[in-house]
Amino acid sequence: MKTGVGLYTALVLCLLMGTVFLQRPRPKKPPKPPKPSKRPSFKPAPPPKEPEPQEPTDFPPPVIGPPSMFPDCPRECFCPPSFPNALYCENRNLRTVPVIPSRVQYLYLQNNYISEVTAEPFNNATELRWVNMANNRIKKVDKQVFEKVAGLLFLYMERNQLKEVPDDLPAGLEQLRLSHNQISKIPSGAFGKMEHLALLDLHHNKLSDSDMGKNTFKDLKNLVQLNLAHNILKKMPANIPNGIAQLFLDRNNIDNIPKDYFQGFSNLAFVRLNYNQLSDKGVPKAVFNVSTLLDLHLAHNQLTSVPLFNPQLEHLHLNHNSIESINGTQLCPFSLSSESLTDEALMPRLRYLRLDGNHLSPPVPLDVIMCFRHLKSIVV
């Protein structure tokens, strides 16, 4: 009986404990982490475009020099104490011409970024004799500039962007250099009063026959050198002063020389007509028979024969033509049996003859050697 009661009691206790365990709260599962929300995608705004640099901000800043002992010396220039009448403003990245002191006679402004030459900086520059403004960006020169510098002798304005020869140039100019511009116009009377001009350099421009009037060069009575090379001329320039010594017409399109073109030239010593369109038809037989001529360049043309020349000629360049033969008997100004060929004073003076680039083969004909006994070099 006691055994049964004990079993019954044990069973009741087990049931009570199971009930207790069932009522204990179970640990909750940790909540799932929330899904990360998608971040809105923002594309970074492109950096603002910088504006295209405009002149003069595309140039380096002007170079400022140390203070000068001369109170009127522009800070962007150099005034040498040992040469007080000179003003050196070259290679200074200048956009404009500085004020020129009245004491200055020599002005150096080359290799800058100057685009216009105005009159104000020259108001007191009445003593100027030499101005170098080469290698700038000059497109315009005010007419009043040269009224201020009436005594100017040398003007260098090559390698700029001029489209015509400046007006009202000083009448006393002796040298005018305007090469490597874009000049296609020479105003009527541009050189009319410049009787002292000795050198006129207009090579490497855009001059055509119609851009030069018949009297463009007529009044240049003291002209020594005229350089019209590397233009677009088809004809020989008209009314060249007969006192000229050097005439340079290389790299044009000239195909004809008038028969009497050089007649009356009293000092002509150097003629250069390389790289043109000259043929035998466009070169009269004796057009180069000029007693003063010393140096004649006819290379890179279309000649098939050697033109006649004066016994006084010393250098003859005929390379790169279409010459097939050379006849010394025809070229020689005297008969090969003449006593003149034994007289040193009368003997032809030719010393240098260039014939390479033609249809010739060595040796040089004997009659050429017999006639031109002063020859030092022949290039075939």
TrEMBL record:
InterPro entries: Leu-rich_rpt, Leu-rich_rpt_typical-subtyp, LRR_dom_sf, LRRNT, SLRP. Residues 72-106 form the LRRNT domain. SUPFAM superfamilies: L domain-like (SSF52058). The keyword Nuclease does not apply. Keywords: Disulfide bond, Extracellular matrix, Glycoprotein, Leucine-rich repeat, Proteoglycan, Repeat, Secreted, Signal. Pfam families: LRR_8. Residues 24-65 are annotated as: Disordered. Residues 1-22 form the signal peptide. It comes from the Eukaryota. Residues 25-41 have a biased composition (Basic residues). GO terms for cellular component: extracellular space. The gene is PRELP. Belongs to the small leucine-rich proteoglycan (SLRP) family. SLRP class II subfamily. It is found in: Secreted, Extracellular space, Extracellular matrix. This is LRRNT domain-containing protein.
